[in-house]
Structures are given as C-alpha cells and as structure tokens.
Write a structure and sequence with these properties.
Chain lengths: 535, 326
C-alpha cells in the first residue's frame, strides 16, 4: 500500500512537473525574429494599392484599423477605437479613439486621420472601398478623439469593415502632402514603399527581390506587445525552394499555401513542422467552374447539372489538390459560422445520371460518341489548375462532352473572361470575405454583369429572385432574417449551378514548432501578429 | 591604341545605334502582341474592380492610346533614357533595374570566370591527353553536365549541400538582418554565391571544355606546333603558351555570343536560389504582364549583349595579333 501510494505520489509529481513545463512553454516570450516566406513579392506595402495576398500579409502588421476581431466569426473588439455606440436606426456609428496612440513617426493619431483615411483614401482607392462606404453620408469629428459615421441606409456588415487590410487608418499629415485629386499620385507615392502606420511593426528595410524587414514598434498601444523584435519576409520565387527553406529552418513560416501542394504532405510529417488550415475563415476561398450562359448548351441548367454530376469532387480534393480542401456545396463556404446553408449537399458523382440528363436535354451522342464540344480555360495560377483542367477534360469526355483546353497567362485570362466574355467555361476561385454581401453577391446578381470588371458575374446569370434575395440581405439588419434570405439564395444557386461549385480550397499554413500564437481569429494571417512569439 | 583600332571602335559604335533601335522596336511589338495588359492584371489582383477602375488605370498608364502613339511615346522616352514606370511594382523601371543589376552582374561574372577557368583547363588537359582515360572522363563528364537542366542541377545541389550536408545556405544573397558590413558582408555574399554560381557555370564549363578540346586538337595539327616541339619545348609550354592562346578564339567568341543565353540561364538559377537579380525581375514581369519593366529589362540586356560582343571583337586583336581591325 505504501509503495502504491508512493508510486501515486511519484506520478502526481511527474504530472505536476509536466503541467508546469507546459504552462512554462505556453508563456509568451519576448524578443526574437520570425522569418516567413511568400511569393510573389509584394508590389507595395499598403492595401490601398492592391489587396493582393502578398501585400495584405505585410500591410496588416504595419497598419491598424478601428477594430480588432475575435474568433472565426469575427466578433468586433476594441482596436484603435476603444469603444463605440450604434444608433437605434443603425445609421450612425460613433467611435471613441484610444488616447495616446502614435504614428510610426511619433505624431499623435486623431479623429482627423480616421476621417481622412475613410473619405480620401479607402473609399476612392481601396478595391472594396465603395462596398463598405458606398452608402456613407458623412464622417464627423466633433473632437480629436471622436469619429461619427453617418450612413444613408443601414449596412449589416459595417462593423466588419474595420480590418487592418480593409480600412487601414493612414496618417493625414503624411498623405495630404501628396495631391490625391490626381489618382496616380497615391499609387506612385513614397507612402506605398515606405508606409507609416500605427501597427505593431514598422518598416525597417525593403530590399527589392530579396526581403522585407519589419521591426517592433516601441510605441505600440498594446502594453507589452508585440512580442517579436523583428518579422522578416524572405522572397523565394521557387516553390520547392520555399519548401526547402522551411525544412532547413531558414524560414519559420509559410502561410496561405506558400508551399506547393505536392510538398505539403511531406513537410507536415516532419516532427518540427506544424500544419494548420485554421485562421482564414474570414476569407472563405472557394473554387468553381465559371460557365458562360450565353451559349446554347450551357444555357440549359440540365447540362450544367450533368457536368456537375460528371465530376467527382472527392477525387478533385484528394488527387488534384492533395487533400487540401473539401467538396463545395454552394456559394457560401461551410466555415462561415452563421450563413452557410447546412441542408445543402455536394452534387453527387453519378456519370450515369449525367448521361441521362444530357439525353433529356436534347444532346444525344453522335456517331463518335460526342454530344457537343466545349473549350475550357483555366486560372493561370500554377500546376494545380492545369491538373484540374486535365481531370475535367477526362471526366467530361466520359459523358460525351469533348473538351479542348486553352492556356492563357493572367493578363490574357482576365481579358477573355471578364472583358470579352469569350469563353465556354473556366476554373476560377474567389473569396467569400467576411460577409456574403461582400464576397458572394458580386458573382451572381445581374447588376454585376459588367464588362471589364474582374471577379463579377461573367456568366451572364440573370435570376430576378436571386437579385431580390441578395438585395434584401444587403440591408437586412436582423441576422436570423438574413440567414433565411441567404439560405434560399444558396438553394437556388445550388440547384441551377450557374457556376459548377467544386471545392472549398483550404489555405494551409506550415510553420516551425518554435512559432506560437499565430492563429487568433478568422483573419489570422491578416491580423498584425502582435501576439506571435518564438521559442 | 592604333588609329585603325580607334576608327574600328567608332564604326562599331555607329553600328550599335541602328541595332539597338531595331531591338527596341521588335521588343515593343512582341510584348504588345499578347492579349491583356497591366490594367487587367492590377484590376484582377484588386479582386473587386469596377469597369471604371480599370478604365482609370488604363488612362493612368496611357494604355487607352492607339498603339502607334504608345510606340512614339515609348521611343521618345527611350531617347531621354527614361524607361518609364512599372505599374505593377509601383516604382520607376530604371530604379528597379539598377537595384537588381549588381546582383546579376556578380552572379554572371562569377559564373563566367568559373566556367572559363574550369572549361579551359579541362579542355586543354583533355587535348593534351588525347585518347587517354583522362580525356574520356572529361569528355563524358562534359556531355553529362551539358545535358543536365540547370534548374534540376540547382535543386540537387541544394538537396546535397543545404539539406543533407547542411554546409551551404539554400538561397538568398545575404543572411538577412545580420547587419554584416565590410569584409564580413563580402564573405557572406561569397558564401551565398557558391551554389548559384556553380549551377549556372557548370553547363558552360561543359560547353567550353568541349570547344577548347576540339579547338586545341585542331591547332595541334598546325606547323608552328611541330616547330615548337622540334625546338624541344616542354609539352606543357607547347600546350599553354602556343596552342591554348590560339585555341581560345572560338571560346571567346562563343562566350560573347552566349552572354544573352547566360542571362536566360540566370533567370532559372535566380528563381531556384532566390537570388535577388534581374533574372527574377524578368520572371515576375513576364508573369504579371509588366510591359514597361519587361521592355526596360529587354532593352538594357540587349544593350549589354551588343557591347559585350564589341568587347569580344576587340579582344581578338589582343589574343591574336595577326587580326588587324580595318
């Protein structure tokens, strides 16, 4: 008995020691450098120039916005604004700024900066500026610490606008020196290369083609933060080169599919590498086949349903995408915690049914077994998309649709799909972003059939009910009622397949186990990294 | 310098002008043949662009003008050494190129020196031991290296020296953020240069070795070699002082002509090793349809190649005094 209890004591001591060790390991450490890799190199360091991923990754560490966000569902919490009130009619938002916040050049942040940022920078220049602030009537600044937004009509996603990359707060005293009435000036201004923000890190050095070094902002408004001394972006253009650098320990982090899909599985098995697909729920990437409905066979929903049934989504995920994703059911991704319609199932893989549907639609097989011919384009973003096009050609061939594949570079592809509308179908991927009214609606409403506008309704899909539903949802303030509207829209789009929903792409991040605190919310890679620390 | 040489240089320089002009015209036409432009790409990257936004970009970049007007504007700027503005990188093209040029020059010059030295030594050695096992090893080795794709070779060198042995860095030009300066900085760059320069050089080692070998064997049949041997000169002196100098001519010619080719190779090497040079810039400019940047790099590199060939012509006279510039 004695020996038993002593053993127990021993185990307890061990357990206690282990838990203490864990607690110690979980205690954030100050100092150190985090090196991450991505390609291409950012073209600027502010999302006012472009919201492309490489730019967004860096700029979110340099700039803050009024709010920060918690969890995958992006619940607003105080950022540069320490408190806020929303009027009864939800058309007036009053933000109280945090006192004592300084720009990287030492100047104080005031409400005039916020007004300037929204009116003169984000609304006219940010690619989604008009989505967020299109209904803005006025920005008032009753004192240096108060900002009042007055809207013409309520915007249900207004509180989602204040992410560092969506509405970066920029310094008026620096930017007003540039003549912003000339639209070229901002894009070409020094500010895009040497930005000044209030974020946790400030620019130390940018050696084009090689690296960007950010250093700790000593005046950052969060006490004790950031933990890291430096963040280094190493530009490594070759995918295998990036994988090797991570494996070697030369870089600590490869975010957002920076490592080629074929290498992810191998690297993830290494004991020192951590793999995660969390932390990008607020972006919601989704892949589909965009179908030109102007042509005859494709204008028939039965033909599109048949194409949808001829493709095995599980195979696309497992074989083409090396398991990095899951089958898509409709336009809203399943990681959306509120608005995803759980009743939807992916189209079943059933070539027999597909054949039957095509027969019914009036496209029997000819003597050579071919029903009709289509040309496919693919998104020129690398190997995976080429492999996908090969798989699609092979599977559609089995149900009698002969597919010819056409390869274009990005410039040519954008022109063909969005300006000439001269295509049959193409693979494509877009983001839901933090709300369906921002990222989903744009692809399906008929008012967004606009020549020359990228990632819009290139299909020429016109459904008055869909227009009504998205229109109503974009001003409905009650989340429950909004969900009903979005649920119906998802059901219709699922049934009609104006695009063939294929897969929810996973953004896979790989990092060295010495890195901690990366995943904080649904926009973790775009969230400043002030909570990140290294062993 | 003799008056004949001077007049040769002046005449060759005068020839350079129409050549460069023709190159600039051809470049302009070629890059404008493809569909889509920088405005499409920028708008595409923006993710939510309206037609007004795209039209605004196109106006900004002058892409809304007829092509012939764009051409005249481009040529006019070129005459003033203004290479324009890169709308994708948001920086003047000349700055971008000057930023990257040193890294590429370091890589290319190291590769040429390495390739020439090893290639010539290997070629002469093989020729001296014609028909022996040394000759066989060098010839077969050269053939294998010649047939190896440069990017694959680069990756294999990384796997061996950076991953397995862990003695050399896998990429980059310096240890970022180390704050090294002076000699420590130079040594750091050399350390990072070893793998990329070797990858780029090996193909040319093979080319020069094979060329040098066959050139030497041809020279060996000449009378003056027999004379040198008859005088009782040691074989090493015959090979290096008499034969090699004459045998060098085709190698030097090829090196000059291949400079453009070497720049092409450096695109791959710089991409594999993350070497921050011009090659990488070309790669990005091509993918992003950054027309001004692409034109700028093509222009600068063609000027460099034209001048390098001029230099080679002048070198002939030095290597072989019998060649007189008329």
């Amino acid at each position: 008995m004695k020996s038993c209890s002593s053993k127990l004591l021993h185990i307890c001591t061990l357990l206690l020691a282990a838990s203490l060790a864990t607690a110690q390991a979980a205690e954030p450490k100050k100092g150190g450098t985090l090196t991450y890799t991505f390609h291409p190199e950012p073209s600027a360091l502010s999302t006012l120039a472009t919201t492309a991923v490489p730019v967004a990754l860096v700029s979110s560490m340099i700039f803050d916005s009024l709010l920060e966000y918690q969890g995958a569902e992006l619940t607003p919490k105080p950022g540069l604004a320490e408190s806020w009130t929303i009027s009864e009619d939800q058309k007036t938002y009053t933000f109280k700024l945090r006192p004592g916040v300084k720009w990287h050049d030492g100047q104080p942040l005031t409400s005039a900066d916020v007004k300037f940022s929204v009116e003169k920078a984000v609304k006219p220049f940010h690619s989604r500026g008009k989505v967020y602030f299109g209904t803005l009537e006025a920005v008032e600044t009753p004192d240096t610490q108060t900002v009042v937004f007055k809207l013409k009509k309520p915007v249900p996603y207004f509180m989602r606008s204040f992410q560092p990359n969506e509405t970066p707060i920029v310094p008026k005293h620096v930017l007003e020196k540039a003549n912003l009435s000339d639209k070229k000036t901002l894009r070409q201004s020094d500010f895009m290369q040497k930005p000044i923000g209030t974020g946790p890190f400030r620019l130390k050095e940018w050696k084009k083609g090689s690296h960007v070094i950010l250093e700790r902002n000593p005046d950052y408004w969060k006490p004790g933060r950031p933990y890291l001394d430096q963040i280094v972006l190493r530009v490594i253009p070759d995918g295998v080169g990036r994988a090797i650098a991570l494996e070697n320990g030369e870089v600590d982090l490869a975010p957002m599919n920076a490592i080629p899909l074929a290498e992810i599985g191998r690297l993830a098995k290494l004991p020192k590498i951590v793999k995660s697909t969390e932390g990008t729920e607020g972006l919601g990437p989704i892949m589909w086949l965009e179908v030109n409905l102007r042509q005859k066979p494709l204008a028939d929903a039965r033909v599109r349903q048949a194409m949808s049934m001829a493709l095995d989504r599980n195979k696309i995920v497992d074989v083409v995408w090396f398991g990095q994703g899951k089958p898509a059911t409709g336009p809203i991704v399943s990681s959306n915690p509120v608005y995803y319609n759980k009743a939807l199932k992916p189209f079943e893989y059933n070539p027999d049914k597909a054949n039957k549907l095509l027969d019914e639609a009036g496209y029997p097989r000819g003597a050579n077994g071919v029903r009709f011919k289509l040309t496919q384009n693919f998104l020129p973003y690398g190997d995976s998309w080429v492999r996908l096009s090969e798989y699609i050609k092979q599977e559609l061939g089995k149900v009698g649709i002969e597919v010819e594949t056409q390869s274009l570079d990005l410039g040519g592809w954008l022109k063909r799909i969005y300006t000439s509308w001269d295509y049959d179908f193409t693979s494509n991927f877009t983001h839901n972003y933090s709300d369906p009214s921002i990222g989903v609606q744009r692809a399906f409403i008929s008012s967004n059939i606009r020549k020359g506008a990228s990632f819009t309704n290139s299909m020429d899909y016109r459904n008055p009910r869909i227009d009504q539903l998205f229109e109503a949802a974009s001003v409905e303030m009650d989340p429950q009622k909004r969900k009903v509207l979005f649920d119906e829209a998802q059901q219709i789009l699922h049934d009609e397949q104006p695009v063939i929903f294929l897969m929810e792409i996973a953004y896979t991040h790989l990092w060295n186990q010495r890195v901690h605190g990366l995943i904080q919310n649904g926009i973790s890679m775009y969230s400043g990294w002030d909570a990140v620390w290294v062993d | 310098m003799s008056p004949a040489t001077l007049s040769f240089i002046v005449r060759r320089l005068a020839q350079v002008i129409p050549v460069v002009f023709a190159i600039a015209t051809m470049n302009f036409v070629l890059v404008h043949l493809a569909p889509g432009d920088a405005a499409d790409i920028l708008a595409g990257m923006a993710g939510h662009a309206t037609p007004e936004f795209v039209a605004q970009l196109r106006r900004e970049f002058g892409l809304d003008l007829p092509l012939y007007q764009q051409f005249f504007i481009y040529m006019g700027k070129l005459l003033r050494f203004d290479l324009g503005f890169s709308y994708i990188q948001q920086t003047p093209v000349l700055n971008l190129i000057l930023d990257r040029l040193p890294a590429t020059v370091i890589l290319m010059v190291s590769a040429i020196i390495l390739a020439m030295t090893l290639g010539i030594v290997a070629g002469v050695t093989a020729a001296m031991r014609y028909g022996s096992w040394v000759d066989a090893v060098i010839s077969v080795g050269a053939l294998i290296v010649y047939a190896t794709p440069v990017f694959w070779l680069g990756l294999m060198l990384i796997v061996l020296f950076a991953i397995k042995l862990g003695i050399l860095p896998s990429g980059g030009m310096i240890e970022i953020g180390s704050g090294k300066s002076g000699l420590a900085y130079v040594l750091d760059v050399v350390w990072h240069l070893i793998l990329p320069a070797s990858s780029l050089a090996l193909f040319y080692v093979a080319v020069y070795a094979r060329l040098m070998r066959s050139s030497m064997l041809e020279i060996y049949t000449f009378d003056f070699i027999m004379t040198a041997r008859a005088k009782g000169l040691p074989e090493r002196t015959v090979a290096w002082s008499h034969a090699a100098r004459n045998a060098l001519l085709p190698v030097v010619t090829l090196a000059g002509v291949q400079l453009g080719h070497l720049l092409g190779g450096s695109i791959l090497v710089e991409t594999v090793f993350g070497w921050p040079g011009l090659g990488r810039l070309v790669f990005d400019a091509l993918l992003q349809r950054d027309l001004n940047l692409l034109l700028g790099i093509l222009f600068i590199s063609s000027v460099v190649v034209v001048f390098a060939n001029l230099l080679v012509d002048l070198l002939y006279g030095f290597l072989d005094p019998r060649i007189v510039h008329k």
